[in-house]
Amino acid sequence: MESVFQLMNIPLPVPDHSTVSRRLAALSVAMPIQPAGGARHIVVDSTGIKVYGEGEWKARQHGVSKRRTWRKLHLGVDEATGEIRVAEVTTHDYHDSEILPSLLDGIDGEIAQVSGDGAYDTFACHEAIAQRSAVATIPPRHDAQPCRPQEETPTHPRDQILQSIEQVGRAAWKQESGYHRRSLAETTMFRLKVTFGGHVRSRSFDNQAVELFLQCAALNRMIQLAKPDSYPVEA
């Protein structure tokens, strides 16, 4: 970089790798998102991210180690645009349902609907979604029981989902509620892993989190600039 700057006659100092690494942890990453025109449908999910480094060499030489390290990336994706509206990084021992309330806190504006898989089927998640005046689209467990079985007309969102599934069936409920749009979060994670390799190279947790936030921000820019528009075509 120093030689390139000299050829370009640019009098700027080039920081070394250690300086960049130290400052990375304090970097604030603003997620580039297009302004919302109204209440949004947010799809939430998480995925595992490998920590690339010495563990990769050990795995190649000696097989997968029990001490292999990986991080968990939690995303809130806009169903209409595919953009990442909010991201959070944790260690692998955090459950998805624990992170949902903070994910929703990180989203500005109105939320019309929140969709997630069965991992978010907890009372705390339903309460966090209700506080944002949004509709929860979360499939309950197959052996789930109503939290207020004495009510003839369910008022709790989870009980309403159970009643709908009992009336029309699980497959029909997923279709009517738009639950299948949840696959957009998986598509976004697939794009993220294909584009950036699905791993981080930083050693400290704070640096790893910022590295992943930068990947999310870059993916949003790519989606905004190059995502194709799809239209139904009549036969």
UniProtKB/TrEMBL annotation:
Molecular function (Gene Ontology), one example: transposase activity
Renumbered residue ranges of the record's region Disordered: 139-158
The Transposase IS4-like domain, residue ranges: 38-220
Organism superkingdom: Bacteria
One Pfam family matching this protein: DDE_Tnp_1
Basic and acidic residues bias spans: 140-158
Single biological process term from Gene Ontology: DNA transposition
InterPro entries to which the protein is assigned, alphabetical: Tn903_transposase, Transposase_11, Transposase_Tn903
Name assigned to this protein: Transposase IS4-like domain-containing protein
